[in-house]
Amino acid sequence: MSSKPSLRIGNVSGATGDNPHAMVRMATSGHVDIITGDWLSEMNIAWNAIVKRDFPELGYEAGFLTQLEESIDAIVSNKIKVITNAGALNTVALTEKVRELCDSRGYNNIVVASILGDDVSDFVTSTQGKGTGKLMHLDYEDVFLEDWELEPYCGAAYIGAAGIRKALDEGADIVICGRVTDASPVIGVS
Description:
This protein is an alpha/beta fold. The chain has eight helices and five strands; from the N terminus they run E-H-E-H-H-E-H-E-H-H-H-E-H. Strands 1-2-3-5-4 form a five-stranded parallel sheet, with helices on both faces. Strand 1, helix 1 and strand 2 form a beta-alpha-beta unit. It is globular and about 55 Å long.
């Protein structure tokens, strides 16, 4: 028998375009301890790279922020933790927006953490990255990044749950990630 208390985890998103009010519904009537949300796909990452190129302050999933604005009062009053990968290619900017939201509502005690390390865009688009020959195609072991005919525009590496676990252990209430493995938000709380 486990000595850990049970946790109720509710997921509010599997992709961009899911119910735009799922978070507030979960926060007000889901009886959950933790809300997770997966806003990213390969398409979203590419789209966010284009948006970030034109608007460097963006590049994250704005739908998450909209849902959090609608539900932050219930999340705080119900002491619900939130973990998301909505940081996409600008986790730092989204984290700042979330902190601003919390401060504007008087929730200065809410700890917002960022999990970084997934955005490898600078590396794969640089001469240094192309010249290493170490980045191989996942489906073709004999094809390397420097051999590709197309120029890479962005790059994201899947990272795991260790950063999420550490952030929660250190008191984070809201954890903003970029590209983590799909199961990482749930694994990170266990």
